[in-house]
Amino acid sequence: MLELGFGDLLPSVLFTMNTNYYKIFAFLFLSLGHAWIAPVSADELTYQESQPIYIELLPGEYWWGGLSVDGYRMPYGEATELGRNLYANNQGNQASPILISSKGRYVWSEMPYRYTFAEGVLSIDETMDLVHVGDGADTLAGAFKEVSAKYFPSNGEIPDPLLFTSPQYNTWIELIYNQNEKDIRAYAAAILSNGYPAGVMMIDDNWQQSYGDWEFRADRFDDPKGMIRYLHEGGFKVMMWICPFVTSDTETFRHLAAEGMLHLDPERTQKILWANTRNKAAVIRWWNGASAMLDLSNPRAFAWMEGELDHLVEEYGVDGFKFDAGDAKFYESGVISFEGDSIPNKHTEYFAKLGLKYPLNEYRASWKMAGLPLAQRLRDKTPDWGDLKQLIPGMIAQGLMGYAYTCPDMIGGGEYQSFLKLDNIDQELVVRSAQVHALMPMMQFSVAPWRVLSPENNEICKKMALLHEKFGEEILALARRSSKTGEPIVKPMAWFWPDAGYEAIQDQFILGNNLLVAPVVENDARSRKVVFPEGIWIGDDGSEVVGPATIKIAAPLERLPYFRLQVSK
Fold first, then answer.
1. Mean pLDDT value of segment 44-61
2. Does residue 509 carry a pLDDT above 90?
3. The pLDDT value given to residue 34
4. Long-range CB contacts (< 8 A, 24+ apart) of 223-227?
5. Lesser CB count within 10 Å: N end or C end of the chain?
6. Is the domain of 60 the same as that of 146?
């Protein structure tokens, strides 16, 4: 690509640029004095690696992207003061090198960069690759369609349909680290006996012999084949929790170390008995202690892991996998990999690529896997009203980053300590959490509502599960559409109604193209205000609203308010 100096390009480019780019160039010219650029088109400019970029925010302009964990802070506007570096930093959730604006502008790079919003200016620096700045789409939807088509087009496939049409049930909260056949069978039986629909059963951590030894523990599973057959007969598909770590001082570790399939310690100074290979394996601290880590940049290690998973599918009838703990920070400490110059983010990407072989999958940590058929869950939340309020903006952020197949966290939160004492459980929060989930692309239980809630509140949660099942085929159709268009399934109001002042709405969303969903996310609230765009809206209670309007509606504990637009957008 031809590269010219800013001064050499300015006269010719000015005639092909729109007004917004003129403002960006003028700002760059005054701020930097000299900038190197490579022109792509009249609507996109490409900046060299390590070149700082400054973009002055337009009046009323809002931005999304970078880290889904920051969803509740989005959209970023003129008053935002925030800085993030995407290098080795996914913050326990999805990350992507995209920033996208309500005015049709975007920033994209294939590699991590640092971005800062301050004093009405978006700055991009600490770049590791070319940075593309696009303009000309005018709207949020237009910008997303343009950048997704160029840089992360959907591949036409979706994760397993059951993830969309039925609830998911994760054994984590009920069993914690005591995953065992008897209690898993009992959990499944209780789901059905309490009137909840069958769906996906996720068996969580500590079912395995050790990290890296992906066989059922003989002391906890008498008949794993029979257990999975029992779950299948009950209408469930079965997922097993896995991670890229390898327990030290095991036969599996010694084999993988000898074969060069583990990340290596760059210092080679670890004085530990088992590190008797020529190059010592790196020991990485994570939430379950200190372990070696599979180097998936090595094709042999990648194939070995696939073989382990295929064995579970073929030998036991396992249907898929929950892929956990692939966070970029675990690769940050200068570990040596087969692919010597890989950045930490790249190893998160390698781990995510494992899931492409297994349609029934789930990820919490991702880097640059937009447009691909991977189910993406928000990171673990606490049973707190503040965290509950983060679910909708977090899901919106995921979608605008290109992750369409999304799931909120476990209903009520994913921290097991909060559910050990029944007296400490906020029953209303669990109910409202189930309502937020009900009309999302995916819905996941972990704590058993029938164990922790009153019969009345359990009944509400069951109705939400059945509501999700009722909408299942519609949600599945939206997922299939996303696989062709790349569009989010959960959309912000500003997607359809640009320049209407809806950008900052964080407590309601559009499912698909015509369903406005307005859950209650405030404690003790029995009503809420709903913003209705133009059109005729028919509510779940049969009411009719003519928009645009902002109306206070009744929302007793048992109600999830939603409204259908009579003419689809």
1. 94
2. yes
3. 32
4. 223/181, 224/181, 224/316, 225/315, 225/316, 225/317, 227/181, 227/184, 227/185
5. N
6. yes
pLDDT tens per residue across span 100-120? 999 999 999 999 999 999 999
Q: Tell me what percent of the chain is helix, strand and coil, each rounded to the nearest 5.
A: 35, 25, 45
Domain with residue 553: its CATH number is 2.60.40.1180
For residue 552, how far is the Cα from the chain centroid? Answer: 32
**Could you tell me if 426 and 447 are in contact, meaning their C-beta atoms sit under 8 angstroms apart?**
no
> Considering the domain boundaries, does residue 359 fall inside one?
yes
Cα–Cα distances in angstroms (integers) from residue 401 to residues 72, 152, 342, in the given order: 14, 10, 23
In degrees rounded to 5, what are phi and psi of residue 84? -140, 145
Q: What residues make up the domain containing 561? A: 491-565
For residue 48, is pLDDT > 80? yes
Residues 354 and 421 occupy one common structural domain? yes
Residue 328 domain-assigned? Answer: yes
User: Distance between CA 86 and CA 108 in Å, rounded?
Assistant: 12
Chain segment 37-46, per-residue pLDDT in tens: 333 345 799 9
- The answer as to whether 227 is a domain residue is yes
Domain end among 131, 151, 171: 151
Residue 399 has pLDDT above 70, yes or no: yes
Q: Is the predicted pLDDT of residue 7 greater than 60, yes or no?
A: no
| Coil/strand/helix, residue 54 | strand
Where does residue 174 rank: exposed (0-12), middle (13-18), buried (19+ CB within 10 A)? buried
pLDDT at site 421: 82
Confidence grade of residue 191 (pLDDT, cut at 50, 70, 90): very high
| Contact criterion met (CB below 8 Å) for 469 and 165 | yes
- Total of domains in the chain: 3
Q: Which helix (H) or strand (E) holds 490?
A: strand 490-491
Helix (H) or strand (E) holding 527: strand 527-539
The mean pLDDT value of the chain amounts to 91
**Residue 486: CB partners within 8 Å, gap ≥ 6?**
144, 145, 148, 149, 152, 153, 154, 371, 402, 404
Provide the pLDDT confidence category of residue 335 given band limits of 50, 70 and 90: confident
* 120 and 50 within one domain: yes
Same domain, 133 and 176: no
Are residues 21 and 98 part of one domain?
yes
**Any domain includes 267:** no
Give the per-residue pLDDT at 341: 80
Q: Quick one: which of 398, 430, 420 has its CA closest to 509?
A: 398
- Residues 93, 193, single domain; the answer is no
Are 474 and 500 members of one domain?
Answer: no
- 51, pLDDT greater than 90: no
Residues near 417 by beta carbon (within 8 Å), at least 6 away in sequence: none
| Among candidate residues 428, 446, 479, the one where a domain is terminated | 479
| Helix axis angle, 299-316 to 224-233, nearest 10° | 70
Residue 177 is part of a domain; what is its CATH number? 3.20.20.80
Q: Residue 324 in contact with residue 293, Cβ under 8 Å?
A: no
Q: Rg (Cα) of the chain, in Å, rounded?
A: 25
Q: How far apart are CA 523 and CA 384, in angstroms?
A: 10
Q: Does the predicted model carry a pTM greater than 0.85?
A: yes
- Residue pair 316/229 in contact (Cβ under 8 Å)? The answer is no
